Amino acid sequence: MAEHPAYPVGLRLSGRRVVVLGGGSVAQRRLPALIAAGADVHLVSPSATPSVEAMADGGEITWHRRPYAAGDLTDAWYALIATSDDAANTAASAEGEAHRVWCVRSDDAAAATAWTPATGHSDGVTVAVLGDSPDPRRTAAIRDTVVEGLRDGTLVAPHHRPQAASVALVGGGPGDPDLITVRGRRLLAQADVVIADRLGPRDLLNELPPHVEVIDAAKIPYGRFMAQEAINNALIEHAKAGKAVVRLKGGDPFVFGRGMEEAQALAEAGISCTVVPGISSSISVPGAAGIPVTHRGVAHEFTVVSGHVAPDDERSLVDWAALARLRGTLVVLMGVDKIGKIAEALIAHGRAPETPLALVQEGTTATQRRVDATLATVAETVVAEDVRPPAVIVIGEVVGVGVPHTPQA
Ligand SMILES: C[S@@+](CC[C@H](N)C(=O)[O-])C[C@H]1O[C@@H](n2cnc3c(N)ncnc32)[C@H](O)[C@@H]1O
């Protein structure tokens, strides 16, 4: 049977009947792709794993709770045979052969009329790998290499259809280059122009090929900075010139990141914009220092606040009195310079002076450091320990739980 290689094809299963025999781990692995392809999936099995059962309960598949019976493959376009009963598998396979239904068999690939390739997806393309004979480990390894390469940009496959002017607003995560999303990394690898902030995964910029133009949009507090308007104009100009533009931001673009201002400016200029969320420092930096922002029985809420203006500054939009009354965790970004006044305001409005607090500087990077204090001592501690931005400040009982300095992967 298998002297000839398999003929690869993409089945368009939307609305078409697909029969799955057996509700075990093979079905559990294969069903999501069949559901994603829009197939009308009928599972025949007396039992199923909890995940498969949940797909049936959710109406994603139709479950016939019984063993295989002759005639089950009638009207099917395609079948997956994966029961634990050898005789049933053989009988179903013979039925498929007789009725010209392509069948995959989990127990005996050599006897099957179809094989499932190792598949992966990246950027609107499905990569499917088939061996000349069934060798799932090898095909999976080749699939992983290709998909991983497309995702991290080591395999570059340019789009040949002309692309409309567009910009990707990419959240780069808190700093560790491993903490950008797969999509963000892929877009970065495809970029012609990258406009990057000071915060975020700067190391990724070193990996970009020399033809990529990297523009520093550093907004250094109280120092030299490139005005937001200049950044917007640069984005628009490069996109209009037909360049693939990535605006790389620290954390998430919409958490104190001015992401929406840039998206609005692009929309006004008629340029489409893809927003790629990022891991915000507000959660990940405390986590990297061993502090959970919520913890059962300790904090049922966390509030993220900007501390870039002091509580007594008329420009402040933060209700510090209300925050002082909350029991949960308070996470302050951009607050190192004003933490003394912030602590004073919280104490004045009722938070206990001994409330624990931690400052986590340059979180997730090689120079990460955590400094602990209380609301009463933080002003002195910041000076004594020379804590500098960027730092995330966590205030609340969660600072005292967990394992300090939890090792990160
Ligand atoms: C302009 S805000 C941008 C926040 C970003 N969009 C996010 O979601 O993380 C900058 C502030 O984020 C915090 N921050 C960002 N990255 C950090 C890091 N790696 N370590 C400590 N704080 C960080 C600091 O409070 C810093 O002043």
Automatic annotation (TrEMBL):
<dbReference type="InterPro" id="IPR014776">
    <property type="entry name" value="4pyrrole_Mease_sub2"/>
</dbReference>
<keyword id="KW-0456">Lyase</keyword>
<keyword id="KW-0489">Methyltransferase</keyword>
<dbReference type="GO" id="GO:0032259">
    <property type="term" value="P:methylation"/>
</dbReference>
<dbReference type="GO" id="GO:0019354">
    <property type="term" value="P:siroheme biosynthetic process"/>
</dbReference>
<dbReference type="InterPro" id="IPR006366">
    <property type="entry name" value="CobA/CysG_C"/>
</dbReference>
<feature type="domain" description="Tetrapyrrole methylase">
    <location>
        <begin position="167"/>
        <end position="378"/>
    </location>
</feature>
<dbReference type="InterPro" id="IPR036291">
    <property type="entry name" value="NAD(P)-bd_dom_sf"/>
</dbReference>
<dbReference type="InterPro" id="IPR035996">
    <property type="entry name" value="4pyrrol_Methylase_sf"/>
</dbReference>
<dbReference type="GO" id="GO:0051287">
    <property type="term" value="F:NAD binding"/>
</dbReference>
<dbReference type="Pfam" id="PF00590">
    <property type="entry name" value="TP_methylase"/>
</dbReference>
<keyword id="KW-0511">Multifunctional enzyme</keyword>
<dbReference type="GO" id="GO:0051266">
    <property type="term" value="F:sirohydrochlorin ferrochelatase activity"/>
</dbReference>
<keyword id="KW-0560">Oxidoreductase</keyword>
<keyword id="KW-0169">Cobalamin biosynthesis</keyword>
<dbReference type="GO" id="GO:0004851">
    <property type="term" value="F:uroporphyrin-III C-methyltransferase activity"/>
</dbReference>
<dbReference type="InterPro" id="IPR000878">
    <property type="entry name" value="4pyrrol_Mease"/>
</dbReference>
<dbReference type="Pfam" id="PF13241">
    <property type="entry name" value="NAD_binding_7"/>
</dbReference>
<dbReference type="GO" id="GO:0043115">
    <property type="term" value="F:precorrin-2 dehydrogenase activity"/>
</dbReference>
<comment type="similarity">
    <text>Belongs to the precorrin methyltransferase family.</text>
</comment>
<protein>
    <submittedName>
        <fullName>Uroporphyrinogen-III C-methyltransferase</fullName>
        <ecNumber>2.1.1.107</ecNumber>
    </submittedName>
</protein>
<feature type="active site" description="Proton acceptor">
    <location>
        <position position="197"/>
    </location>
</feature>
<dbReference type="InterPro" id="IPR050161">
    <property type="entry name" value="Siro_Cobalamin_biosynth"/>
</dbReference>
<keyword id="KW-0808">Transferase</keyword>
<keyword id="KW-0520">NAD</keyword>
<comment type="pathway">
    <text>Porphyrin-containing compound metabolism; siroheme biosynthesis; sirohydrochlorin from precorrin-2: step 1/1.</text>
</comment>
<feature type="active site" description="Proton donor">
    <location>
        <position position="219"/>
    </location>
</feature>
<dbReference type="InterPro" id="IPR012409">
    <property type="entry name" value="Sirohaem_synth"/>
</dbReference>
<dbReference type="InterPro" id="IPR014777">
    <property type="entry name" value="4pyrrole_Mease_sub1"/>
</dbReference>
<keyword id="KW-0627">Porphyrin biosynthesis</keyword>
<dbReference type="InterPro" id="IPR003043">
    <property type="entry name" value="Uropor_MeTrfase_CS"/>
</dbReference>
<dbReference type="InterPro" id="IPR006367">
    <property type="entry name" value="Sirohaem_synthase_N"/>
</dbReference>
<keyword id="KW-0949">S-adenosyl-L-methionine</keyword>
<dbReference type="GO" id="GO:0009236">
    <property type="term" value="P:cobalamin biosynthetic process"/>
</dbReference>
